[in-house]
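hey team, just a heads up i'm posting the complex here instead of the shared drive bc the drive is being weird again. everything in one block, sequence lines first with there labels, then the predicted structure for the whole assembly after. its three chains so it's a bit long, scroll down
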Amino acid sequence: MARRQDIILKWLKYFGLLVFSLVFLVPIYWVAVSSFKTDKSIFAALMPFSPKALWIDAKLYLGAYQDIIIHRNFTLAIFNSFFVTLSTVLLGVIVTSLCAFSFAVFDFRFKKVLFGLVLVTFMIPFSSIALPLYQIVSGLKMIDTYWALILPAVANGLSIFLFRQFFLDIPDSYLDAARLDGASWRTIYFNIYMRMSIPIIVSAGIIIFMDQWEAFLWPLLAGRSKSMKVIQVAIADLSQDNEVYWNQIFAACSISIVVPVMIVLPLQKYYIMGIASSGIKE
Amino acid sequence: MKKALYFIAIVLLASFTLFASGAQEAAPAEAAPQAAPAAGGVTEITFLCNSVKPYDTAMPVMVEAFEKANPDIKVKVEYLPTKSIYEVVEVKLGAKEATPDVLFVDAPLVAAYVNKGYLAPLDSYYSADELGQYVDVCRNYGSSGGKLYAAPFVNSSQVLYYNTRIFDELGIPRLSKDPKDRLTWEQVVEIAKKCTIDKDGDGNPEVFGLGIAQISRPYQMLAIPESAGGQPIGEGGLTVSGVLTDESWVKACQFIQDLFNTYKVAPKGVSASDMLAYFPSEKIAMLIGPDYNHLAYSKNADLKWDYAPYPYFEGGKPVTPTGSWCLGINTASKNKDAASKFIKFLTLYPGCIDWFQIDGHLPANKKTLEFVASNDKYTKWPFDIFALIDYESKNTAVARPLTPGYLEYESLLTTAFEDIRNGSDVKTTLQNAEVQIDRTLRKYK
Amino acid sequence: MTCSKKERYIPYLFLVPAFCGLLVFRIAPIFSSLLDSFFTVSYAGGAHRKFCGIENYVYALTDPIFVRSLKNTLVFTLVVNPVEIIWAFILALMVYRPGKGMGVFRTIFFVPFTISLAITSTIWGIIYNPNGGFLNSILSIIHIGPMAFLTSPKEALGSIVFLVSWRCVGYWMIFLISGLQNISRSLYESAWIDGARAHQSFWYITIPMMVRTFLFVIVADTCQNFLMFTPMYILTQGGPEQSTNVAMYEAYKNVFIYADRGIGNAMVITMIVMILIVVGLEFKFLRSKEA
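-- predicted structure starts here --
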C-alpha cells in the first residue's frame, strides 16, 4: 500500500520537475534563440505563433550581436557592470562581515538599537529613497562616477544579517582560546572567523553580486552617461527608441543572463551551504 | 584556501585600483563643474540630446562641423531616449546641476521649465534679424512672457501613410494628396474595414486596416477631439474642468475606442514604438504618423507606399498635430556663451539647412523653408510631401496647449487615452481624468 | 564578550565602515525625504518652498488615486507573497534531497532570478501580447480563449503577479531548501519507527521546523514586494484603469513627473511606516507559532 503511494508520489515529482523546468526555461530559451534571428523572422513566427519561434533559423543571424557590440558600445556596458558589481562584492563582503563580527562577538551599549537600525534599513529599497539619495550623492559630487553606483550598495543589510547569524554559531571556545593566546581582534576576525566562513562569504557575495548586477532604477538615475552605463540601463535604452530592435534587446538580455548563471552554477553548493549554515534564526 | 583568498583579493584590488584610476580620469570630466575657460583654453559643453533616429546619426555630423568652426569649444553629447530625457532634466536641473549646458526641450514644456527656473533667457544672444528667422508659431511656443527661452530646432506635421500594394490588391483607388480632398475619419474607417484581413478566421487579423503612430500620447491624439471642435485645455492653461467632458471630446474618444474595439480595424496591445514598425512589415495597411517617417519608408525597397492628408471629422475642422523639439540653456550652466553659440549654429542659417539635409524633419526656420520651396528635389515623390506638410503647418496645425503643468497633463491624459483604447467607459474615464488633472494643476495657481 | 575598559571603542570600530554607508546612503535620504514631505512647492511665478505641516499627508490620504494605489499594493502583496512562497516551497520539497540531477534542477529553477526584474518585465510584455502572442497561442492549443493580460483591468495585476513570481521563486527556494536541509533526518526516522506516515511527518515535523525559515522568507518577500514597481513602470504605467497603480509608483510619478516632491515624499514615508507595521505584525504572528 505504502509502496504504491510512494511510486505515485515519485512520478508526480518527476512530472512536476519536468513541467516547472519547461515553464522556467522556455521563455529564456526563446529569448536566446531569437537573439540570432532578424526582427522580421521573430515576429513572423510570433503573431500568429508558430513552433518556428522555438527553432533556430537555418541561417544564424549575428547582426543583432554585431550591432550592440559595435554600434551601441555594449562591451563598455558589460565592463561597467562587471566593474561595479565586483567592486561592490569585494567592499561589501569586507564591510558587512566586519559589522556582523561586532554584533556577534561583542556586547556593547546600543547593540540592540544599532542592530535594529540595520534591520530597518534592510527593509528600505533604493527606489523609495531614490530622489533624496540622488541629491545627497549629487551634493558629494559623485553623480556619474563609479562611486555613485558602488558605495550605496556596499552596506547590504541582508549580508550583515547572514554573517551575524553564522558568526553567532561559531563556538565561543575558539574566541576564548584566541584571546588567551593574546591574539589581536584583527587576527581573530580574519584568521578565525572569516576562514571558517567560506560558504557564507560565497552566499553573501552572490547575494550582493545579484543585487548589483540587476540593479536598474538607481543606475538609471545616477549613472546615465554613456561611459557609465551598466547593462540593465543599456538594455532599457534599447527598448525606448521609436524603433525597437527586439533581436538586439534579446541579444543584450542573453549576454546579461549568461554571466550570473556562469557564476552561480558552479558555486551553487556553497551558496546553499552558506545560507543553511547561517541557520536563519531570529 | 587562505592563499587562494589572498590571491583573489590582490587581483581584485589591483584591477580595482587600475580601473579606479582610469575612472578618475573619466569621472572628473563628467562630474567636475565646468569652469570658465582660461584665456586660450577649451570650453567643454554638455549637450543632452535625444537618441531617437535620426538624431543619433545626424547630430555627430553637426557637432563635428561646429567644433571645426569653433576650435575653442568642445561638445560632449549625451544621447537619451525620449522618456528618459524628461526624467533626467527633472532630476539634474531640479538639483541645480551645472550640466547639461544645452538640452532638448519638448515644445510644450517650455512654460513649465521656465516656471521651475530651469531655462535661461536667450534674447540677449540674438539680433532681431536672427530671431526673425524662426517660424513664428515655433518661436511662440519657445517663448514665455515675450522672451525666448528655447530655440526652435525642428517642427513636425502628420500625414496618412498607406500601403499601395494592399490597396491595389483590394481594388481601392489611390488617395488624393490635395488637402481640400482629404478623407473624413468616417471614410477612413470604411477603407480600414476592407483592409483588415483575417485569412484563417481565428479572430486575430494578420493585417489591420489602421494604425496610429504615437498611440495614446497627447501629441498624436489631441488632434482628434480638436477636429470635433474640442479644446485641449481650459482658461489660462490651469484647469481642464468641463473641457474633457465636452460633447466633442466624448464623441472623439468614443470614435477612438470604436476603432480598437467595435470596428476592430486597429490593433490593441501594441505600443507606440511597435506601431511604427508595423507599417513596413505590412501588418497595418494605413498609418497615421509623423512626416519624417517618409525618409525611412522611402529607403525600404520592399515597401510600396504613398501618403495622403490627415483626416478630419465630417462637419468638423481639419486639425493636424505639430511642434517638436527646441534647444534650451540650463540656468545653472557655467558656459552659457559657448552654449548659445552651439544653439545658434544648429538652428540658424546656414547650419539649419545643413541640419535639414541630414535630418529631414520639417524645418522650424523660415530660411530652410525657402530653401525647400526653391529646390527641385522637393518637387519629386516622395519629397513632394513637403508641399503638403508646409500647407498643414500653416493652415491646420494646432500646437499642444501651453500650461506650466504640461508633464502632469500629458501623463494623465496618456493614461486616459490608453484606458479608452482598452475599452473602459469613455465618459467615466474622461471625468476621472478631469478631476485628476485639475488636482495636479492646482499648485500652479 | 564585553571589552576591557581600554578596548571599549573596538566594537564600534568594526561597525564604522558599514554604518557610514548606512547612515549616508540609507538613513540620511529617509530623513531628507521626511523633511521634504513637510514642505509644499508652489510654482506661481517661480518656485517657492513653504512649510505646510502635515498638509501633504492629508492630501495624499484623501487622494482617491493614492488610496486606490494603497489598495492595489495590498492586494498585490497579499497575492504575490503566498504564490511565491508556496510555489517556492513546492519546488524546494522536490529538490532539497541530495540526489542525481537535483543540482541541475535547482540551477534551472534559479536561472530566472539571474535575469533582472526590468528585463523579465520586458520579455513577458511580449509574451503577454493579446493579439495572438506567445502565451495566447499556446493557450489556444488547449482551447483557452484569448486572454487580454496586460490590457484588461481584471487580468493585468494577476499577469504581473505571475511574472514576478516566475522570476523570484528560485531565490526563495534556495532559502527554503536550506531550511529543509537543516531538519535532522533522525527526526523523520524516529517518527517512521513510531508509525507516522508521510503526510503526518510533513505536518508535524517539517512545517513546525520550518517556521523560522518561513518567517524570514515572508518578511524579506514582503519588503521586496511592497515597494516594487519596476514591472508597472515598464509595462502598464499604472493602467489599465489604475488597476496596476501601486503606491510606490504613484509616489515616483509625483516626484519625477508631477514635480510634487512634498506629496511624493509624503507618500514614500507613509509606505515606509506601513511596511514597518506589516512586518512587525508578521513577526508577532509567526513568532507566536514558534512554540
